[in-house]
Protein backbone atom coordinates (compact mmCIF):
# COMPACT_ATOMS: atom_id res chain seq x y z
CA UNK A 1 0.00 0.00 0.00
CA UNK A 2 1.26 3.54 -0.70
CA UNK A 3 1.26 6.60 1.57
CA UNK A 4 2.15 10.26 1.61
CA UNK A 5 2.44 13.36 3.86
CA UNK A 6 1.09 16.94 3.80
CA UNK A 7 1.45 20.51 5.29
CA UNK A 8 -0.32 23.92 5.41
CA UNK A 9 -0.07 27.75 5.16
CA UNK A 10 -1.67 30.79 6.74
CA UNK A 11 -5.21 31.93 5.81
CA UNK A 12 -3.90 34.81 3.72
CA UNK A 13 -1.72 32.51 1.65
CA UNK A 14 1.51 33.29 3.49
CA UNK A 15 3.53 30.55 5.11
CA UNK A 16 3.12 30.79 8.86
CA UNK A 17 6.21 31.80 10.79
CA UNK A 18 7.54 29.02 12.97
CA UNK A 19 7.15 29.64 16.69
CA UNK A 20 10.19 30.17 18.84
CA UNK A 21 11.25 26.87 20.36
CA UNK A 22 11.21 28.34 23.87
CA UNK A 23 7.75 29.90 23.65
CA UNK A 24 4.59 28.21 25.02
CA UNK A 25 2.65 25.94 22.65
CA UNK A 26 0.33 28.03 20.45
CA UNK A 27 -3.33 27.40 21.12
CA UNK A 28 -6.24 27.53 18.71
CA UNK A 29 -9.28 29.62 19.55
CA UNK A 30 -11.11 26.41 20.41
CA UNK A 31 -9.18 23.34 21.52
CA UNK A 32 -11.03 20.05 21.59
CA UNK A 33 -10.62 16.34 22.31
CA UNK A 34 -13.07 13.62 21.25
CA UNK A 35 -12.54 10.08 22.58
CA UNK A 36 -14.71 7.09 21.69
CA UNK A 37 -14.10 3.63 23.13
CA UNK A 38 -16.41 0.89 21.86
CA UNK A 39 -17.05 -2.45 23.55
CA UNK A 40 -15.36 -1.52 26.80
CA UNK A 41 -16.16 -4.85 28.46
CA UNK A 42 -15.54 -7.11 25.46
CA UNK A 43 -12.39 -9.11 24.87
CA UNK A 44 -13.40 -11.35 21.96
CA UNK A 45 -12.34 -9.12 19.06
CA UNK A 46 -9.19 -7.20 18.12
CA UNK A 47 -9.19 -3.56 19.16
CA UNK A 48 -8.33 -0.74 16.76
CA UNK A 49 -7.68 2.88 17.72
CA UNK A 50 -7.89 5.67 15.14
CA UNK A 51 -5.82 8.71 16.17
CA UNK A 52 -6.34 11.87 14.18
CA UNK A 53 -8.36 15.05 13.86
CA UNK A 54 -11.80 16.08 12.59
CA UNK A 55 -11.16 14.17 9.36
CA UNK A 56 -10.66 10.99 11.38
CA UNK A 57 -13.73 11.74 13.47
CA UNK A 58 -15.72 12.10 10.26
CA UNK A 59 -14.87 8.73 8.72
CA UNK A 60 -14.62 6.73 11.97
CA UNK A 61 -18.29 5.56 11.96
CA UNK A 62 -17.83 4.22 8.43
CA UNK A 63 -14.75 2.23 9.45
CA UNK A 64 -16.65 0.92 12.46
CA UNK A 65 -19.53 -0.19 10.25
CA UNK A 66 -17.24 -1.85 7.69
CA UNK A 67 -15.41 -3.81 10.40
CA UNK A 68 -18.47 -4.76 12.44
CA UNK A 69 -17.98 -8.24 13.87
CA UNK A 70 -14.27 -8.14 13.01
CA UNK A 71 -12.88 -5.46 15.31
CA UNK A 72 -13.80 -2.98 18.03
CA UNK A 73 -13.13 0.59 16.86
CA UNK A 74 -12.04 3.42 19.11
CA UNK A 75 -10.99 6.94 18.21
CA UNK A 76 -8.92 9.75 19.63
CA UNK A 77 -9.67 12.86 17.58
CA UNK A 78 -8.01 16.08 18.71
CA UNK A 79 -7.03 19.60 17.69
CA UNK A 80 -3.55 19.04 19.14
CA UNK A 81 -0.65 18.83 16.72
CA UNK A 82 2.84 17.41 16.63
CA UNK A 83 4.99 19.76 18.68
CA UNK A 84 2.32 20.29 21.34
CA UNK A 85 3.17 18.25 24.47
CA UNK A 86 -0.56 17.94 25.17
CA UNK A 87 -0.89 15.59 22.18
CA UNK A 88 1.39 13.06 23.84
CA UNK A 89 -0.49 13.46 27.13
CA UNK A 90 -3.79 12.69 25.39
CA UNK A 91 -2.35 9.67 23.58
CA UNK A 92 -0.82 8.28 26.76
CA UNK A 93 -4.09 8.74 28.66
CA UNK A 94 -6.24 6.90 26.12
CA UNK A 95 -3.74 4.07 25.61
CA UNK A 96 -3.45 3.58 29.38
CA UNK A 97 -7.16 2.71 29.62
CA UNK A 98 -7.52 -0.06 27.04
CA UNK A 99 -5.30 -2.46 25.15
CA UNK A 100 -5.18 -1.96 21.38
CA UNK A 101 -3.98 -4.35 18.70
CA UNK A 102 -3.78 -1.86 15.81
CA UNK A 103 -3.32 1.92 15.90
CA UNK A 104 -4.00 3.97 12.75
CA UNK A 105 -2.63 7.48 13.27
CA UNK A 106 -2.61 10.66 11.21
CA UNK A 107 -1.54 14.16 12.26
CA UNK A 108 -0.75 17.14 10.05
CA UNK A 109 -3.74 19.45 9.66
CA UNK A 110 -3.22 21.51 12.83
CA UNK A 111 -0.34 23.42 14.37
CA UNK A 112 0.66 25.67 11.50
CA UNK A 113 2.91 27.71 13.82
CA UNK A 114 5.23 24.72 14.14
CA UNK A 115 8.06 24.50 11.62
CA UNK A 116 8.65 21.50 9.39
CA UNK A 117 11.84 20.89 11.39
CA UNK A 118 9.78 20.70 14.58
CA UNK A 119 7.29 18.38 12.87
CA UNK A 120 10.09 15.99 11.89
CA UNK A 121 11.57 16.13 15.38
CA UNK A 122 8.29 15.43 17.16
CA UNK A 123 7.00 12.63 14.94
CA UNK A 124 9.30 9.92 16.41
CA UNK A 125 8.21 11.00 19.89
CA UNK A 126 4.59 10.37 19.00
CA UNK A 127 5.39 6.92 17.60
CA UNK A 128 7.43 6.13 20.69
CA UNK A 129 4.50 7.10 22.95
CA UNK A 130 2.17 4.81 20.98
CA UNK A 131 4.59 1.91 21.12
CA UNK A 132 5.03 2.33 24.85
CA UNK A 133 1.31 2.69 25.51
CA UNK A 134 0.26 -0.11 23.14
CA UNK A 135 3.12 -2.63 23.27
CA UNK A 136 2.91 -5.15 20.45
CA UNK A 137 0.28 -3.18 18.53
CA UNK A 138 0.74 -2.65 14.81
CA UNK A 139 1.04 1.04 13.96
CA UNK A 140 -0.16 2.35 10.58
CA UNK A 141 0.43 5.95 9.51
CA UNK A 142 -2.24 7.72 7.48
CA UNK A 143 -1.11 10.69 5.44
CA UNK A 144 -2.93 13.97 5.93
CA UNK A 145 -5.74 14.61 3.49
CA UNK A 146 -5.67 17.41 0.88
CA UNK A 147 -6.92 20.94 1.39
CA UNK A 148 -8.73 22.17 -1.68
CA UNK A 149 -9.08 25.64 -3.19
CA UNK A 150 -11.07 26.12 -6.35
CA UNK A 151 -11.66 22.38 -6.49
CA UNK A 152 -7.95 21.46 -6.67
CA UNK A 153 -5.56 20.70 -3.80
CA UNK A 154 -2.54 22.23 -5.52
CA UNK A 155 -4.23 25.66 -5.57
CA UNK A 156 -4.36 25.90 -1.77
CA UNK A 157 -1.29 27.51 -0.16
CA UNK A 158 -1.87 25.45 2.97
CA UNK A 159 -1.91 22.30 0.95
CA UNK A 160 1.74 22.89 0.05
CA UNK A 161 2.70 22.36 3.68
CA UNK A 162 0.43 19.33 3.91
CA UNK A 163 2.48 17.80 1.11
CA UNK A 164 5.75 18.63 2.87
CA UNK A 165 4.57 17.10 6.13
CA UNK A 166 3.43 13.98 4.34
CA UNK A 167 6.84 13.66 2.72
CA UNK A 168 8.54 14.05 6.10
CA UNK A 169 6.32 11.45 7.76
CA UNK A 170 6.52 8.96 4.92
CA UNK A 171 10.30 9.17 4.76
CA UNK A 172 10.83 8.80 8.50
CA UNK A 173 8.27 6.07 9.14
CA UNK A 174 8.93 3.94 6.05
CA UNK A 175 12.52 3.55 7.24
CA UNK A 176 11.15 2.58 10.64
CA UNK A 177 8.96 -0.17 9.18
CA UNK A 178 5.64 1.61 9.73
CA UNK A 179 3.13 0.93 6.89
CA UNK A 180 1.87 4.06 5.18
CA UNK A 181 -1.79 4.52 4.23
CA UNK A 182 -1.84 7.17 1.50
CA UNK A 183 -5.11 8.93 2.29
CA UNK A 184 -3.88 12.01 0.43
CA UNK A 185 -3.30 10.07 -2.77
CA UNK A 186 -6.65 8.31 -2.47
CA UNK A 187 -8.53 11.64 -2.30
CA UNK A 188 -6.37 13.92 -4.46
CA UNK A 189 -8.36 13.44 -7.68
CA UNK A 190 -11.82 13.11 -6.10
CA UNK A 191 -13.23 16.66 -5.66
CA UNK A 192 -16.73 15.21 -5.36
CA UNK A 193 -15.81 13.91 -1.88
CA UNK A 194 -15.36 17.37 -0.31
CA UNK A 195 -17.62 19.68 1.64
CA UNK A 196 -17.77 23.36 0.73
CA UNK A 197 -15.02 24.39 3.18
CA UNK A 198 -12.36 22.56 1.16
CA UNK A 199 -11.02 20.78 4.27
CA UNK A 200 -13.68 18.39 5.51
CA UNK A 201 -15.29 15.59 3.57
CA UNK A 202 -18.90 15.21 2.53
CA UNK A 203 -20.93 12.20 3.74
CA UNK A 204 -20.03 10.51 0.45
CA UNK A 205 -16.36 11.25 1.03
CA UNK A 206 -16.43 9.98 4.61
CA UNK A 207 -18.08 6.77 3.45
CA UNK A 208 -15.46 6.20 0.75
CA UNK A 209 -12.51 7.02 3.00
CA UNK A 210 -13.95 4.89 5.80
CA UNK A 211 -14.16 1.90 3.47
CA UNK A 212 -10.61 2.57 2.34
CA UNK A 213 -9.24 2.66 5.90
CA UNK A 214 -11.16 -0.51 6.79
CA UNK A 215 -9.56 -2.29 3.83
CA UNK A 216 -6.11 -1.17 4.98
CA UNK A 217 -6.77 -2.29 8.55
CA UNK A 218 -8.25 -5.69 7.74
CA UNK A 219 -4.99 -7.59 7.04
CA UNK A 220 -3.62 -6.52 10.43
CA UNK A 221 -6.54 -7.63 12.57
CA UNK A 222 -5.15 -11.11 13.15
CA UNK A 223 -1.72 -9.88 14.19
CA UNK A 224 -2.38 -10.51 17.89
CA UNK A 225 -4.83 -12.88 19.62
CA UNK A 226 -7.90 -11.34 21.22
CA UNK A 227 -7.78 -11.03 25.00
CA UNK A 228 -9.19 -13.89 27.05
CA UNK A 229 -11.17 -13.56 30.22
Poorly predicted regions: 1-22
CATH architecture assignment = 3-Layer(aba) Sandwich
Number of DSSP E strands:
6
Number of spatially distinct domains? 1
| Mean pLDDT level | 87
**Percentage of residues in helical conformation:** 25-40%
**Strand/helix succession:** EEHEHEHEHEHH
Q: Given the C-alpha coordinates, what overall shape results?
A: globular
How is the main sheet built?
Answer: 6 strands, mixed
Q: Could you name the CATH homologous superfamily?
A: SGNH hydrolase
What top-tier CATH class fits best?
Answer: Alpha Beta
Multimerization status: single chain
Name a few traits of the molecule.
disordered N terminus; Rossmann fold; globular; 6-stranded mixed sheet; alpha/beta; 229 residues
Amino acid sequence: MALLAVALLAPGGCLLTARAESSPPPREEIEWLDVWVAGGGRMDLPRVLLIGDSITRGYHPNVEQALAGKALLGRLATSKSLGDPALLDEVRLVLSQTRYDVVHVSNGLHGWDYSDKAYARELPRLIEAIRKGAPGARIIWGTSTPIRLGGKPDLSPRNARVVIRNQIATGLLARDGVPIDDLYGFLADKPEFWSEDGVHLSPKGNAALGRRVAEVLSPFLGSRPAMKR
